[in-house]
Amino acid sequence: MEEQKLYRTITPREFAVLDAQRVTLVDLREPDEVLIHPVEGAINLPFSRFPDGLGELPKDRPAAVFCRSGEKSRQVAEILADRGYEVMELAGGYAAYTAFLNGGAPEESGRCAPESAAPAPETDAQRFFIDAKGLRCPGPIVKVADFLRDRPEGTAVRAEATEEAFASDIRVWCERTGCTLDALRTENGVITADITKHVPAAAPESAAPAGNGKTFVVFSGDLDKTIAAFIMANAAAAMGREVTVFFTFWGLNILRRPERVRVSKSFVERMFGLMMPRGTRALGLSRMNMGGAGAKMIRGVMKSRGVSSLEELMDDARAHGVRLVACQMSMDIMGIRREELIDGVELGGAATFLGSGERSDMSLFI
Fold first, then answer.
1. Over 70: is that where the pLDDT of 278 sits?
2. For domain 210-365, which CATH number applies: 1.10.8.100, 3.40.50.2000, 3.90.1170.20, 3.40.1260.10?
3. CATH classification code of 8-116
């Protein structure tokens, strides 16, 4: 005789009409999954940390639990039911729910097809397809990780994205997770990455001790802070260290060309451009700027003391292999286009920065 369940299984159709004011929606997915595919009104209680956070769930109303594919939510539903909760469990998990919203899989059995059966693999390479086009950092990387997380060793995927930073990010992500980047190409603005999942028996490289590289995050657009950053970057490069300087938000202005570049922009983006300095010559001091007079004074003092100018320091850095990386997400927010950047700058995202940091024994935020 089949054991009677202490909780109720509901279909995606039933889940879609639940009132979050009367039912507690419990999302068991990991935070990176929720970041890209949130469910409005749900409490995130990651399965990996369960039962942490259980005290947040009120007992005076039903709880509707769901995970990615329905496997983990059944376990949690049983635990909650044993503890006196009135519980509903979403059949097929978030994968089934999104399929229903998109007019997809049948529900006659109360359970949609598992997510792993949704994408059709290529006949030649047996690759699943991941469409990350239009997503912004860290969206494409999270979507790849989200797809591969519960899949077996040897799973092959082809991911397509339109954000230029994806080319750098996916290289670093594969390197740090042990996956193989089989191919990477760009055509008509679409970056295609072929990836094979591997789970090393030994500890992954990401768990190894940091190397002796140096990573600098330049958030500020102040002249004096930028000079300090490049003095340290050049010193580290002279010591034979691998150096990455990651520019984000106001620091992006350091990388702008001094001359005006004609690119298509919205009104708000043009206003941003007018209000921000264009290139190193327009940077001001963090203290005693005095309407730009302070910046001219410190440049004069540096020249009289034989100290290299910021422009010379940047040239030296590039000549000695220092990586200059512009955060593409920040560029998109601030309306800065690639054409406006000086030569030798890479576009990257969060994974590029984190990968560099893991290979470093020192990371500085400036």
1. yes
2. 3.40.1260.10
3. 3.40.250.10
